[in-house]
Structures are given as C-alpha cells and as structure tokens.
Fold this protein.
Amino acid sequence: MDKKFIFVTGGVLSGLGKGIAAAAIGALLEAKGLRVTLQKLDPYINIDPGTLSPFEHGEVYVTDDGCETDLDLGHYERFTHVKTCIDNNYTTGRIYHNVISKERKGDYLGNTVQVVPHITDEIKDAIKSAIKDEYDVVIVEIGGTVGDIESLPFLEAIRRFRYDVGRGNVLYVHLTLVPYIKAAGELKSKPTQHSVKELREIGIQPDILLCRSEIPLSKDVKRKIAMHCNLDEDAVIAAVDVSTVYEVPIWFRSEGLDKQIEKMLNLNLPEADLQIWEDVVRKIKLPKQDTTIAIVGKYIGLKDAYKSLTEALIHGGIANDARVNIVWVDSEDLEKKSPDILLSEVDGILVPGGFGIRGIEGKITAARYAREKRIPYLGICLGMQIAVIEFSRNVCGLNANSEEFDPEIEHKVIYLMERWYNHRTGKIEERAKDSHKGGTMRLGAYPCVLSERSRAFEAYQTQLISERHRHRYEFNNHYRQMLESKGLVVTGVSPDGELVEIVEIKEHPWFLGCQFHPEFKSKPIQPHPLFKAFIEASIKEKRSLFR
Ligand code: GLN
C-alpha cells in the first residue's frame, strides 16, 4: 500500500483543538488496523519550544530522544501508539536554520535562495522524514490559523506535496468553527465559508471539514456548508463539544469520518473497533469514587502549562475508577497563607517540575505539610528536589537549598554536576554552568534501577525502567547517607548508581519524588504506574469533602 498523508489545518481562530482532532483521527485509523504516525509543523521562528515560556505557549513536551517539542506531541502519544522523536516536530526556525546552513556550505551554489522553492522543499523533506517503514499513514498538523502570514510557506508546501506523492494519497482536513448564536438560536456557517475561501485562494480545496460547534449540526446546516465549500454533505463532520477529549474518536466515527477517509484515500478497511476508548470514556464519566489533588505550581494561570500532568492524573483516576478533582494552588500564596487554609481539604499534594526561584519557599511549605500531615505526595523533577531540600532543612537541620536558588548556600543538597557518565551516549560529559540550555540540560529517556522494597517497585512491578528527563540540577550524593539515616531513602538510581532518580519517605503512607517526568509517558489506555499508585494512596487517605 502507498503511504497516505492527511494534512490538518485550522481556520477562523486558534484554540479549536486541532491537536486533539489530529490525534483522534490517528486513534480512529489505528482502530481500523492502520499504523499511524503524526507530525506537527509550527510556524514560529524559535528552533524548538525549549526556550518558550510555558505560561505563553503551554507545556514543553519531551520525547524519548531528548527533543523539547510542542505539547500536541503529547496528545499524539496519548491517543495512538506512536513514539515521537526529532522528526515529529518542525518549526519555521528549524526549517530556515537548515536552509541557511546549507547555503553557507555552498549547497545552492549559483542560485538565489528563496521561500519558493527552497523553504517549501525543505518543508516537504521535513514531512518525508516522518515517513518510516512501520507506518501506513502520516497525519501532519499545521500550527497556526489559515490566513496568518507565518503559515503560508507550510500551506504552499503541502499544496505541492500532493503532486509529489499522488492525488489519491493525500487528504486535506480543515478544522473550523460554526458558532451558535444563542439569541437567534442559530448556527452560523459564514466564518467557515470564509476560512475555506481563504484556503482555496492559496490553492487548497479541503476534502473534509471538521466543524467545531456547541451543538450538533442539522442536515440543513451541513448541506449549506457543503454547497458553499464545494464538498459532499458527508464530508462535513460536526465536531461537537464533548466532556472528555477521549470521546472524540468515538464521536468522529459516529459522524462517519472514518468512512470518508477510507473512501477518499481508496482504502478498504475493517470497521473501527473503539472498545478501548469506550471503556476509557465510561470510566471517566461514571467513576465509583473521587479524590482531590492539589497541584502546587507557578504557572497555574495557564492550564496548558501542565497538560501532560493533568492528563496523567485523569489516567491515574481511570486506573482506580475515580474522578480526580484538581485544586490549583499558587505556590506564592503558600508563602503568605497557611497550608492549613490552602491544603487542608486535599487528599494528595503534587509539586510539579519548574524552573526559577519564584514560589520555591511555598513549594517547600507544601512538601513539609505533606510529610508532617502524612498526606500522599508526588514530587516531579523540581518537586523531588523540593522534597530533598525540605527534608534536609527540617529533619536533618541543615542550612540547605538547591544551587539553582542559592549558589552561596552552605549545603547544596541539589547541585550542578560538572562531569557525569551519560548512559545514553556511553560517555563522560561536561555539564556547563551557564544557564543557556545547550548541552547543560539532561534531556530525554534514561534508564533507572529500582530497589525491590520500595513504593516505586510496588508501582512498576519491575526493576529496570526508563523515564524522560528535563533538568539541569541533580541530587548531591554527599548527603545521601545522612538523609537515608533520617528516613528519606533513595529507591531509584542510574545503572552506575551515581544519579539519584527517586527518593521516598518510608514512614509515610506514600511520599515519593522522582527526578524524571512520568507524566510524559502516561496514556488513558495505559495509566502510568506512579500516577496510579499516587491516586490509589490519595483515595485511601481521603480527607476531602468533595462528593
Ligand atoms: N529547575 C530544576 C532543574 O533544572 C528542575 C527542572 C524541572 O523540574 N524540569 O534541575
């Protein structure tokens, strides 16, 4: 079978859920037996989102091979079996960087280097890099909204792409908005018509429209949109608001999206088997119990900054047949108000990853409260470092901090390791002190060995695990013995025993900090063991009054 390509563009306005739509198409096609990969093309100039503020752009998602990528790749991994890597996310910056590097090397000798064809060819090569033997279909999501200046080269590239790989192998799916005007009780199709007109002006006739709308589209509305946009009525798919994103593949099937894709790409496939998604949705909608978790963070104004984390909590809930209520606690508030006020009604406390000194003392207060009040605690990356600082200060009596927050502190229990053995490369490497990320950050998947008698081992049920990292600082082994003798034990280390990856408090219902980010590997159909165990412990220790 020829490789098939589905391009997903967005119109009218941003934030309609293009990433979820692309991922859900992936899930739907996998349910019909196809092997699917997904790619995101982002129109901004940063080479990758690693340097972007999560407050503006949402979470930075980390892949196994250590790339800092767009959060949509998280949706791709949660909805499908794809394992994303460097080939799954390109930005305008990276495309230009490649072209300019080639120009400097003399690859275009004699030619004027231009957007068309040089940039557009580079984009087409980027798309081709996602084609691997093991996949039948490549779903490519174009970031931004049609009509933006920035996305033009991408749209031109995907327009040409169809000529390269054959008409029957390419599908253009366009996501738009059909607003519901309450006062008139009417759905409005005009924004969709305009958006499609704009796409057609640059030479792309969409094959399928996904119409985001508050309520289902009537036959009349579909007919009207189809007529104005040059489509069959069956190619106008309603994408109605649903209560959980994991319902989207089911909804798409009920709208006949899979049949349309099959027909247009000349495929002959079995019926989609969506049983796993039906089970997930049932567990989310009709849980037997509930629990309340506080996320103590800095960027709580923008929920997308913690996308994988909140999803992983939902997955932990699925594994326990429980709804997880999230209480967002601004760590700076904990510096002014008592935890007895802010954290008294929660069943579990989670301190997520983060950078910079703001709100650090509030996070330390949260970790202390969890330890002393015996509330289940999950510390992720910075959250693990916080637990170590708190324990060093309040149990061991050390004047302790992380080198990140106080380079002059007496006891740097978390510090910058200058030389380390990198298990991924098999080499001794330097980790420079400057704050620019290149080379200094431990990024991507690293192996970790678990101690048999530990909460971690209980959760994973295996000794060797692999998890993704994104941090600069490490646990300082100089303090390991002292901390362990007082009750904060190390239960996960790198294979050479040098890097501390997990710490736990033994005399506590459930208190665990990990140097890695387990949330990046959690899926609704495969909840992450640590989130499953954390939620289980929180249910057991329930104090909240939410019902
Ligand atoms: N700021 C800490 C470090 O660089 C933790 C990073 C994180 O939580 N991702 O080590």
